[in-house]
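Supplementary Note 3. Input sequence used for the single-chain structure prediction.
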Amino acid sequence: MFTNIALRAVLKSSVDVLRESVAVSVKPWTCSSTFLTGPKGGCAAGGFAVPPPVRHYARVAKKTKKGPVSQLSDLTPTMLKMDYAAVPLAQTTDDIVKRLLSLELANHSEKLKLKKEQLVAKVQRNENDRSSVEVRVAILTARIRNFQEHLHKHHKDKANKRRMLMAIDRRKKLLKNLRLVNYDAFEKVCEQLGITYTFPPDYYRRATRRWVAKKALCIKVFKAVQKQKEEQRLLKQSRALSYIEAAKAQAAESQ
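The predicted structure, written as discrete structure tokens, is reproduced below.
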């Protein structure tokens, strides 16, 4: 019994000594002003300072690329559609109906038709001209610019890119022919539509040994054929002369 009492006293004294040593060595945690700087920042004595969640507010925003100015930007929304521009009743109708007939609620294709008519009016020869080279160049120019604006936004659209290149080639051929036939009309078209005509590059082909040999063979064959044709021509002439001489001889004998 006495031994149990002595053991309890020794354990109690050792526990008290440990508590005092821990109280002296370990200091309570305090809140750090570097972590909690907001108006609600604060913690109890002896607690840990928990930093706020980090948000990536310093991330650089992506800059939106500005596309080229659209060719339809000069069309005011109050303009009437192409089908109703020549109707006199559309000018004096109600405001609501006039708004429905205007470009404000029109789709892209209707605006493009009106732009084609504006470009055609600049270069056509007369009011009824719809099939001249100048008119076709104006229509192709409107289509090409429309394709360019579309491909600037959707650069992976291969089908429309092919159509644009075909239209450019067709317009280049028309301008080339117009330049040879009527140079004044060619200059007027380029000035009115804002087209810069560039000459095609000179033809260049790398001279390989196979190409040189083939060219020499073609030249040799061409010379041989020309020589043969010349011999046939001389033979025909000699035969014709012989026939003439024979006819003259017969005429002299008959006299």
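Residues 205-250 form one domain. The chain is about 60% helix and 0% strand.
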